[in-house]
Amino acid sequence: MSYILETVNLVKRFGGLVAVNNANIKIKRNSITMLMGPNGAGKTTFVNVCTGVLRPDEGRVFFNPTGSEKSKMEITGWPPHKVYKLGFVRTFQIPQPFLALTVLENVLAALGGRGENPLVAPFRWLWVKNEEDRVAKAFEILKKVGLEEYWDWEAYKLGAGQLKMLEIARALAVGAKLVALDEPIGGTDPAHAHEIFKHVQSLARSTDITFLVIEHRIDIALPFADYVYVMDRGSVISMGTPDEVANDPKVVEVYIGGR
User: Which residues on neighbouring strands pair with residue 38, listed in sequence order?
Assistant: First the structure.
Protein backbone atom coordinates (compact mmCIF):
# COMPACT_ATOMS: atom_id res chain seq x y z
CA MET A 1 0.00 0.00 0.00
CA SER A 2 1.36 3.42 -1.00
CA TYR A 3 1.28 6.24 1.53
CA ILE A 4 1.92 9.84 0.61
CA LEU A 5 2.42 11.03 4.21
CA GLU A 6 3.57 9.16 7.31
CA THR A 7 4.32 10.44 10.79
CA VAL A 8 6.20 8.44 13.41
CA ASN A 9 5.73 9.25 17.11
CA LEU A 10 5.17 12.92 16.37
CA VAL A 11 5.16 15.18 19.43
CA LYS A 12 4.58 18.93 19.83
CA ARG A 13 4.58 20.64 23.20
CA PHE A 14 3.72 24.17 24.26
CA GLY A 15 5.23 24.40 27.73
CA GLY A 16 3.43 21.81 29.83
CA LEU A 17 0.71 21.25 27.22
CA VAL A 18 1.26 18.32 24.87
CA ALA A 19 -0.70 19.42 21.79
CA VAL A 20 0.35 16.42 19.69
CA ASN A 21 1.20 13.26 21.60
CA ASN A 22 3.04 10.46 19.75
CA ALA A 23 0.88 10.71 16.65
CA ASN A 24 1.38 7.87 14.16
CA ILE A 25 -0.68 8.67 11.09
CA LYS A 26 -0.50 7.32 7.53
CA ILE A 27 -2.26 8.97 4.58
CA LYS A 28 -2.99 6.63 1.68
CA ARG A 29 -2.44 8.07 -1.80
CA ASN A 30 -5.48 9.19 -3.82
CA SER A 31 -7.78 9.03 -0.83
CA ILE A 32 -9.73 11.29 1.48
CA THR A 33 -8.43 10.85 5.00
CA MET A 34 -10.33 12.63 7.75
CA LEU A 35 -8.57 13.90 10.84
CA MET A 36 -11.40 14.50 13.26
CA GLY A 37 -11.92 15.50 16.84
CA PRO A 38 -13.42 18.22 19.01
CA ASN A 39 -12.01 21.74 19.17
CA GLY A 40 -8.61 21.74 20.86
CA ALA A 41 -7.91 18.10 19.97
CA GLY A 42 -4.61 18.95 18.23
CA LYS A 43 -5.71 18.56 14.61
CA THR A 44 -4.46 21.89 13.28
CA THR A 45 -1.27 21.67 15.33
CA PHE A 46 -0.58 18.29 13.75
CA VAL A 47 -0.90 19.78 10.25
CA ASN A 48 1.21 22.79 11.22
CA VAL A 49 4.00 20.46 12.35
CA CYS A 50 3.80 18.39 9.17
CA THR A 51 3.89 21.47 6.90
CA GLY A 52 6.74 23.19 8.71
CA VAL A 53 4.78 25.99 10.34
CA LEU A 54 5.84 24.49 13.69
CA ARG A 55 8.86 22.35 14.50
CA PRO A 56 8.19 19.04 16.25
CA ASP A 57 9.74 18.32 19.63
CA GLU A 58 10.00 14.63 18.80
CA GLY A 59 9.16 12.26 15.97
CA ARG A 60 9.56 12.18 12.21
CA VAL A 61 7.55 13.16 9.11
CA PHE A 62 7.90 11.42 5.74
CA PHE A 63 6.48 12.61 2.41
CA ASN A 64 6.24 10.55 -0.77
CA PRO A 65 4.89 12.71 -3.64
CA THR A 66 5.05 10.11 -6.44
CA GLY A 67 4.49 6.78 -4.71
CA SER A 68 7.97 5.55 -5.58
CA GLU A 69 10.26 4.50 -2.74
CA LYS A 70 12.93 6.68 -4.37
CA SER A 71 10.79 9.79 -3.86
CA LYS A 72 10.08 9.08 -0.20
CA MET A 73 11.91 11.64 1.94
CA GLU A 74 12.00 12.83 5.50
CA ILE A 75 10.71 16.39 5.79
CA THR A 76 10.82 16.71 9.57
CA GLY A 77 11.39 20.35 10.47
CA TRP A 78 11.56 21.55 6.86
CA PRO A 79 10.48 25.19 6.36
CA PRO A 80 7.00 25.72 4.90
CA HIS A 81 8.21 26.96 1.50
CA LYS A 82 10.20 23.77 0.89
CA VAL A 83 7.27 21.55 1.91
CA TYR A 84 5.02 23.61 -0.39
CA LYS A 85 7.36 23.17 -3.36
CA LEU A 86 7.22 19.39 -2.89
CA GLY A 87 3.45 19.52 -3.43
CA PHE A 88 2.19 19.41 0.16
CA VAL A 89 -0.22 22.35 0.34
CA ARG A 90 -2.59 23.42 3.09
CA THR A 91 -5.59 25.70 3.30
CA PHE A 92 -6.75 27.60 6.37
CA GLN A 93 -9.93 27.76 8.42
CA ILE A 94 -10.34 31.39 7.34
CA PRO A 95 -9.80 31.70 3.54
CA GLN A 96 -7.17 34.24 2.55
CA PRO A 97 -7.67 35.09 -1.14
CA PHE A 98 -6.81 38.40 -2.79
CA LEU A 99 -10.20 39.95 -2.09
CA ALA A 100 -9.96 42.75 -4.67
CA LEU A 101 -9.02 40.35 -7.49
CA THR A 102 -11.52 38.29 -9.42
CA VAL A 103 -11.88 34.55 -8.94
CA LEU A 104 -10.00 33.96 -12.19
CA GLU A 105 -7.21 36.36 -11.23
CA ASN A 106 -6.77 34.58 -7.88
CA VAL A 107 -6.18 31.29 -9.68
CA LEU A 108 -3.90 32.93 -12.26
CA ALA A 109 -1.82 34.39 -9.46
CA ALA A 110 -1.29 30.89 -8.09
CA LEU A 111 -0.39 29.55 -11.53
CA GLY A 112 2.30 32.18 -12.15
CA GLY A 113 3.55 32.97 -15.65
CA ARG A 114 6.35 34.21 -17.85
CA GLY A 115 4.71 37.59 -18.37
CA GLU A 116 5.21 38.45 -14.71
CA ASN A 117 8.96 38.61 -15.22
CA PRO A 118 9.81 42.34 -15.66
CA LEU A 119 12.54 41.44 -18.15
CA VAL A 120 10.09 39.47 -20.30
CA ALA A 121 6.95 41.61 -19.92
CA PRO A 122 7.88 44.25 -22.57
CA PHE A 123 8.13 41.55 -25.25
CA ARG A 124 4.57 40.36 -25.77
CA TRP A 125 5.48 37.59 -28.19
CA LEU A 126 7.50 35.88 -25.45
CA TRP A 127 4.58 35.41 -23.08
CA VAL A 128 1.23 35.74 -24.90
CA LYS A 129 0.90 32.00 -25.68
CA ASN A 130 1.85 31.14 -22.09
CA GLU A 131 -0.79 33.57 -20.85
CA GLU A 132 -3.48 31.99 -23.03
CA ASP A 133 -2.54 28.53 -21.74
CA ARG A 134 -2.69 29.78 -18.14
CA VAL A 135 -6.19 31.19 -18.62
CA ALA A 136 -7.39 27.93 -20.18
CA LYS A 137 -5.92 25.92 -17.31
CA ALA A 138 -7.46 28.28 -14.75
CA PHE A 139 -10.92 27.77 -16.26
CA GLU A 140 -10.42 23.99 -16.14
CA ILE A 141 -9.61 24.25 -12.44
CA LEU A 142 -12.60 26.51 -11.74
CA LYS A 143 -14.88 24.01 -13.46
CA LYS A 144 -13.57 21.21 -11.23
CA VAL A 145 -14.48 23.15 -8.08
CA GLY A 146 -17.78 24.56 -9.35
CA LEU A 147 -16.70 28.19 -9.66
CA GLU A 148 -16.60 28.61 -13.44
CA GLU A 149 -19.74 30.77 -13.42
CA TYR A 150 -18.16 33.17 -10.94
CA TRP A 151 -14.85 33.68 -12.77
CA ASP A 152 -15.33 37.45 -13.09
CA TRP A 153 -16.57 38.04 -9.53
CA GLU A 154 -14.27 39.81 -7.11
CA ALA A 155 -13.39 37.39 -4.32
CA TYR A 156 -15.01 39.54 -1.63
CA LYS A 157 -18.42 38.91 -3.24
CA LEU A 158 -18.24 35.15 -2.71
CA GLY A 159 -20.04 33.29 0.05
CA ALA A 160 -18.26 31.26 2.71
CA GLY A 161 -18.58 27.97 0.82
CA GLN A 162 -17.40 29.51 -2.44
CA LEU A 163 -14.36 31.02 -0.70
CA LYS A 164 -13.47 27.55 0.59
CA MET A 165 -13.63 26.21 -2.97
CA LEU A 166 -11.45 29.08 -4.20
CA GLU A 167 -8.84 28.00 -1.65
CA ILE A 168 -8.95 24.51 -3.12
CA ALA A 169 -8.71 25.92 -6.66
CA ARG A 170 -5.55 27.82 -5.76
CA ALA A 171 -4.07 24.66 -4.25
CA LEU A 172 -4.78 22.78 -7.48
CA ALA A 173 -3.19 25.59 -9.47
CA VAL A 174 0.20 25.07 -7.84
CA GLY A 175 0.22 21.37 -8.67
CA ALA A 176 -0.47 20.03 -5.19
CA LYS A 177 -0.05 16.31 -4.55
CA LEU A 178 -1.42 16.40 -1.01
CA VAL A 179 -3.88 19.06 0.13
CA ALA A 180 -4.61 19.54 3.82
CA LEU A 181 -7.99 21.22 4.20
CA ASP A 182 -8.44 22.82 7.60
CA GLU A 183 -12.17 22.80 8.40
CA PRO A 184 -13.34 23.28 4.80
CA ILE A 185 -17.00 23.51 5.84
CA GLY A 186 -16.48 25.90 8.76
CA GLY A 187 -18.95 28.77 8.56
CA THR A 188 -21.00 27.19 5.76
CA ASP A 189 -24.57 25.94 5.87
CA PRO A 190 -25.18 22.17 5.55
CA ALA A 191 -26.28 22.41 1.89
CA HIS A 192 -23.04 24.06 0.83
CA ALA A 193 -21.05 21.79 3.15
CA HIS A 194 -22.23 18.72 1.24
CA GLU A 195 -21.39 20.37 -2.08
CA ILE A 196 -17.85 21.10 -0.90
CA PHE A 197 -17.27 17.48 0.04
CA LYS A 198 -18.80 16.25 -3.22
CA HIS A 199 -16.24 18.35 -5.14
CA VAL A 200 -13.41 17.10 -2.94
CA GLN A 201 -14.53 13.51 -3.44
CA SER A 202 -14.71 14.00 -7.20
CA LEU A 203 -11.19 15.45 -7.28
CA ALA A 204 -9.81 12.58 -5.22
CA ARG A 205 -11.38 10.07 -7.60
CA SER A 206 -10.46 11.76 -10.88
CA THR A 207 -7.01 13.26 -10.23
CA ASP A 208 -3.70 12.31 -8.64
CA ILE A 209 -4.47 14.40 -5.57
CA THR A 210 -4.78 13.19 -1.99
CA PHE A 211 -6.79 15.03 0.65
CA LEU A 212 -6.23 15.26 4.38
CA VAL A 213 -9.35 16.89 5.79
CA ILE A 214 -9.29 18.35 9.28
CA GLU A 215 -12.86 18.52 10.52
CA HIS A 216 -14.94 18.28 13.68
CA ARG A 217 -18.36 18.16 11.98
CA ILE A 218 -18.46 14.38 12.04
CA ASP A 219 -22.13 14.22 11.00
CA ILE A 220 -21.48 15.87 7.62
CA ALA A 221 -17.89 14.89 6.83
CA LEU A 222 -17.75 11.23 7.82
CA PRO A 223 -19.70 9.75 4.85
CA PHE A 224 -17.15 11.19 2.42
CA ALA A 225 -14.07 9.70 4.08
CA ASP A 226 -12.08 6.66 2.96
CA TYR A 227 -10.26 6.42 6.26
CA VAL A 228 -10.52 8.30 9.54
CA TYR A 229 -8.29 9.25 12.45
CA VAL A 230 -9.83 10.78 15.56
CA MET A 231 -7.79 12.91 17.95
CA ASP A 232 -8.57 14.05 21.46
CA ARG A 233 -6.27 16.02 23.76
CA GLY A 234 -3.35 15.55 21.36
CA SER A 235 -3.58 11.77 20.99
CA VAL A 236 -5.03 9.54 18.29
CA ILE A 237 -7.85 7.72 20.08
CA SER A 238 -9.38 5.89 17.14
CA MET A 239 -8.70 4.98 13.51
CA GLY A 240 -10.39 2.95 10.82
CA THR A 241 -13.17 3.10 8.26
CA PRO A 242 -15.99 5.60 8.81
CA ASP A 243 -18.27 2.86 10.16
CA GLU A 244 -15.62 1.54 12.53
CA VAL A 245 -14.90 4.99 13.92
CA ALA A 246 -18.56 5.97 14.19
CA ASN A 247 -19.21 2.91 16.35
CA ASP A 248 -16.14 3.27 18.53
CA PRO A 249 -17.27 3.93 22.14
CA LYS A 250 -14.32 6.29 22.68
CA VAL A 251 -15.43 8.46 19.75
CA VAL A 252 -19.04 8.41 20.89
CA GLU A 253 -17.95 9.57 24.35
CA VAL A 254 -15.85 12.43 22.94
CA TYR A 255 -18.63 13.70 20.69
CA ILE A 256 -21.71 12.92 22.74
CA GLY A 257 -20.73 12.08 26.29
CA GLY A 258 -18.76 15.23 26.98
CA ARG A 259 -15.78 15.54 29.34
Answer: none
